[in-house]
Amino acid sequence: MADPELEAIRQRRMQELMAQHSMGNPDSEQQKSQDEAKREADEQRQMMLSQILTSEARARLARIALVKPEKARGVEDVILRAAQMGQIAEKVSEERLISLLEQFNTQTTKETKVTIRRRPSVLDNE
After folding, report:
1. Where is the composition biased (Basic and acidic residues) (predicted)?
2. Phi and psi dihedrals of 87, rounded to 5?
3. Are 84 and 52 within 8 A, CB to CB?
4. Coil, helix or strand for 79?
């Protein structure tokens, strides 16, 4: 085969693959729009938090999010709800954030219970 023929075959195959990809996956547009909406919501959330929290408090919350993202998200939710209800009049300092974290910890602590059951052995006479 000559090089122009090989190149033409490659081009056709590439076009076929592109057509299959776009037609075979109609949810990709919907997925892209959902991802875009989620990204915009996260950006708006971060912007609101930057207006509510001091830089030290944001740094502490970011460090918490690295270790326990669900806890950081919960505290962010509490702060945003309080701000929307007008309960926060000034920026939240690091000390205030620490007290919110302590309150959040007491509300969401899970009690761990360990039960040890011994399996009966063949040598047991019971």
Report:
1. 29-45
2. -85, -15
3. no
4. helix
Residue with tokens 């602590």: 109
Pick the residue with more confidence: 89 or 109? 89
> Is the pTM value of this prediction over 0.70?
no
For residue 103, give the 3-state DSSP assignment.
helix
Contacts of 58 (CB under 8 A, 6+ apart): 49, 50
Phi, then psi, of 106 in degrees rounded to 5: -70, -30
Return all residues near 54 (Cβ < 8 A) that are at least 6 apart. Answer: 91, 92, 93, 94
Where b means 16+ CB within 10 Å and e means fewer, 36-68 reads eeeeeeeeeeeeebeebbbeebbebbeebeeee
- Rounded to whole angstroms, how far apart are CA atoms 126 and 117? 16
